[in-house]
Design a protein that fits this description.
Blueprint lengths: L1 H4 L4 H7 L4 H8 L7 H9 L5 H18 L1
Helix pairs in contact: 2-3
């Protein structure tokens, strides 16, 4: 998870993204459908474009599948 790799708490990430820690928790738990705009705002905090983010997620999914 990008947040953990950057050593950020949910509260810190929420502050950076001008949202609530509760919302970040829901996103991480896949309890809400995140908009592309909000996703862009969050990944921008990690200095990533949406394209880079989706490429990284695709690689992680493939690696997880191959590890099964």
């Amino acid at each position: 998870m990008f947040r953990i790799e950057k050593d950020l708490s949910q509260e810190q990430l929420a502050h950076l993204c001008d949202t609530s820690a509760s919302y970040i928790r829901k996103v991480e738990a896949e309890k809400v459908n995140i908009s592309m705009l909000r996703l862009h705002e969050i990944v921008a905090e990690f200095e990533l474009s949406l394209g880079e983010f989706f490429s990284m997620m695709k690689c992680k999914l493939i690696f997880t599948y191959l590890s099964l």
